Prior knowledge:
B: 8-stranded mixed beta sheet; two-stranded antiparallel sheet; globular; C: 20 strands
Amino acid sequence: xxxxxxxxxxxxxxxxxxxxxxxxxxxxxxxxxxxxxxxxxxxxxxxxxxxxxxxxxxxxxxxxxxxxxxxxxxxxxxxxxxxxxxxxxxxxxxxxxxxxxxxxxxxxxxxxxxxxxxxxxxxxxxxxxxxxxxxxxxxxxxxxxxxxxxxxxxxxxxxxxxxxxxxxxxxxxxxxxxxxxxxxxxxxxxxxxxxxxxxxxxxxxxxxxxxxxxxxxxxxxxxxxxxxxxxxxxxxxxxxxxxxxxxxxxxxxxxxxxxxxxxxxxxxxxxxxxxxxxxxxxxxxxxxxxxxxxxxxxxxxxxxxxxxxxxxxxxxxxxxxxxxxxxxxxxxxxxxxxxxxxxxxxxxxxxxxxxxxxxxxxxxxxxxxxxxxxxxxxxxxxxxxxxxx
Amino acid sequence: xxxxxxxxxxxxxxxxxxxxxxxxxxxxxxxxxxxxxxxxxxxxxxxxxxxxxxxxxxxxxxxxxxxxxxxxxxxxxxxxxxxxxxxxxxxxxxxxxxxxxxxxxxxxxxxxxxxxxxxxxxxxxxxxxxxxxxxxxxxxxxxxxxxxxxxxxxxxxxxxxxxxxxxxxxxxxxxxxxxxxxxxxxxxxxxxxxxxxxxxxxxxxxxxxxxxxxxxxxxxxxxxxxxxxxxxxxxxxxxxxxxxxxxxxxxxxxxxxxxxxxxxxxxxxxxxxxxxxxxxxxxxxxxxxxxxxxxxxxxxxxxxxxxxxxxxxxxxxxxxxxxxxxx
Amino acid sequence: xxxxxxxxxxxxxxxxxxxxxxxxxxxxxxxxxxxxxxxxxxxxxxxxxxxxxxxxxxxxxxxxxxxxxxxxxxxxxxxxxxxxxxxxxxxxxxxxxxxxxxxxxxxxxxxxxxxxxxxxxxxxxxxxxxxxxxxxxxxxxxxxxxxxxxxxxxxxxxxxxxxxxxxxxxxxxxxxxxxxxxxxxxxxxxxxxxxxxxxxxxxxxxxxxxxxxxxxxxxxxxxxxxxxxxxxxxxxxxxxxxxxxxxxxxxxxxxxxxxxxxxxxxxxxxxxxxxxxxxxxxxxxxxxxxxxxxxxxxxxxxxxxxxxxxxxxxxxxxxxxxxxxxxxxxxxxxxxxxxxxxxxxxxxxxxxxxxxxxxxxxxxxxxxxxxxxxxxxxxxxxxxxxxxxxxxxxxxxxxxxxxxxxxxxxxxxxxxxxxxxxxxxxxxxxxxxxxxxxxxxxxxxxxxxxxxxxxxxxxxxxxxxxxxxxxxxxxxxxxxxxxxxxxxxxxxxxxxxxxxxxxxxxxxxxxxxxxxxxxxxxxxxxxxxxxxxxxxxxxxxxxxxxxxxxxxxxxxxxxxxxxxxxx
Lengths: 389, 327, 567
């Protein structure tokens, strides 16, 4: 059924259809509308779950941790400072192998305080052990949210569904909402083998010393790697049910034989897709949408980059002193491939700066004339003290 | 011999949620407190534990001393994890009671906000704080629960200081201000009283809170065999009053009919040794200060006792052949 | 087995048992089974704490059975014993001692009333036939304890009835005759062959007994008054105390001078003093070298008298002169008209042994017209001359064995006192009889008898926090104006009062089964047993996990738990 919905509203409905037992969240712009919409679903009796309106993101993460450990499907959503405030627990959820799903309404991180979209927040917890999947539009946000619960349950790993703040969360989009029956068919009943149960009293979150810590980290890494297959399978199965795929690990648009590629994540991918189609010379490069950032799909990326001479990697976050985080990882992954294209690292759209379609043309042009190993594409030198140039 | 003792252990006539083999120090008040709490609570509970000694000494993987389902996440979030567990149980229609527990660090300080949130949201959770009055797990640093003038590694006495400068946080009053159904203080020196309070809290649907005074031989500087004696003196001196609060109002107290001097409590502990240095006028002053605080408690809670309860700090745990005189 | 990493590192319940924290320990707790002070001082060897424990469990018959394992005559001893157990009772330091004698007599009376059976071993008699001479407390006790061990016993006495001194020298106001009769009757009914009216020396001689029996026990008492004079002076009309008391018990008459001095510090002196006071003697003085009970008097220097008897005697008007002796008799012709007393005290000499030192300048005079020595008796040598030689008493080891006489045993007043086993009381005689039975049993079985050896339990080692103050049982006492020559002066307790009083016992040195150790062990290293553990407590230490913190020992109310160094 096609509906014109705000992204947050659509995500809230999708969450509701997954029948979570416990939802806990603390409002933060731009995630707010998701929480508000879920609250309304609960208030209207459309969703029967324990909605825990916590006093902080730290507690939100803690509540869903406890709920998942007790065997309930658990969901939270946050953003930016909220993600960082819950960071300690974010790591803990992953380390304890709990199937939590969280929407990250991606936003810049202070200081300076900025409520608009980039990817700094999810990047800040990229090593926490969570699966991170980026959405290019709200249809994907809906579909990926539903898939996330299945992936989490299959692997006993938490999944972060990354949705660009405002650009997606606050944008009205016409999209297909699946019906409840389809979701019920797709999602298994929650079944957490280690659930807290006085009939089988296990201890979770134990102290692990040097004798075993290495092994537990290894096991966690292996589970995370296994997620590559599970993510792809979840998307295939969803496609079989609904006819819609969300992009598996990554997707490639444009001329498969192009020598230039542009790699990006999130809503800019939608912008660039349109630019490819509509701008003159737009088809000179192919567009790689890295949907799955964690686990990092290195082999899929190597395959997608076969034949490329230049690859422009678009970062929507910044590691000061290093440059592009995504670019660094892509470069590292391709180093294991047979022939590495020239990597051009750029950042753009930081703190909500608009990414217009024209950016695509400039990115493609970078393949010929990259000014430096890393630069910020939409930097305005006029706003800088010359000393900072 | 080992086998037969092992068999006897399996046939103990009361449930214990904390098994032997944990790594607590000799004479640990917190280990004792946790054992008593789980005994009274019974097997049908789920524990959410803050980081701290209790967590560390009980669960060195691959072993666990717990015989009840138990979860530890991080230092500050025991109350929030318990909230989540309780919410899940509610969603699933399970009736198991949830107990959150932590030390004074995880309760008075870093976990304070999560605790307040849990109480405000009226989760059906019993929160137990084992109060040993400093951050013991990291090596005896001051907490907001450390008594005034006590020595810790971050409040050492010296030329300019006489131990901790500030007062022990009156947590119970803050808890009471949440208007929850039941909050109480207890002491490992009075196990019958402690277990009664746990059972009371277990019966209540809603948030309850128990503050358990739990001496730390290492941190307080006393012999492990004196744990109970020291805890008893804290109560008998009035420095750690045992009270019960319902909806924020004092409902009952354990009377202290004949208060012992606070100095009797202090002098058995290394953390107050600097208060007994001959010829230091500050030592006397701080002792008097602590005595005044105890007197204040006695007056404030009416511990001197006009009630009819025949059991005071002397009678509360009398024994008779075959068990306690008071169950 | 290799350890396999679990998802998220979860652990299974109770697996910490794989970690034996017992290796941390430098000291270990042990059950001490200390000797409660009541038991330690009891001349009869009773373990009062043990039978009080049975009373605390509300099992009076079991309590009595435990009591008569040592002393077959609780109805008697509960009335006549000076109960050193109560003086030693740790509870006396806390509030007031347990009224042990009152509970003992209650149990004795209950056993008679309900006809509880003595715990005598069942089964065929064992080889060995013992002659017991003298049916006083020592002989009755020996006969009973031998019978309990299934030996054949023939009990001889010169009198028509058993009881010895109990019958001939203790007033019925202290020991009603029906109680005495019933208790003796019940003891004899356990299967003792009693032969009355057989006097040693007159009707039978020791050599004959030695020949006809496998062993002989002499419980013949001390039937001859000790020689008494003051610097060689003796009144012409001298009568000694025990003789007068016996005469009064037999015919109901005593001399009634205006004023009398009784010289001596035992029950005979006090009993006679009270009898004479009641018979109308205006002034009755007791002069004794010992002291009155009190905080300033050494326990071994106190009058060897039942304390409440002393109180009652004073109530009745008997005047005591403690720490004094008679230095001179003031005579008119051969008649006494007064005595000169001097103060003295038992003090250690250069060798550390105590001897009596008189203090010059403390002489005082009492004007009296009669002086009665009651300073004790010695063995009547009739029939035992060869064995006794020139001694006043027999010298024997704790089992009554006389050197060089393998199968002859002695006990009771006939035995000379030793430091560990003083005599002179009914209870001491009962204890002697029991140990002699043990000695005879050991001789028959060619074993070496052993004395019990358990540590003491000083008051300071109790943890009093766990007890509540409660007043001592008050037994009914006949008012002064109702006292006569026959009515028993002190009454017994009700069943309820007796059980409540037993509840006051602190259980010194022995397990109270209070659960404290089990409840307070932070390491779950104390295990409670449903059935009684092999050592009689309800708890065992699990040394696999005990870290040796010592909390159980510190918080054990009764000092049952001690810490010892690990080897």
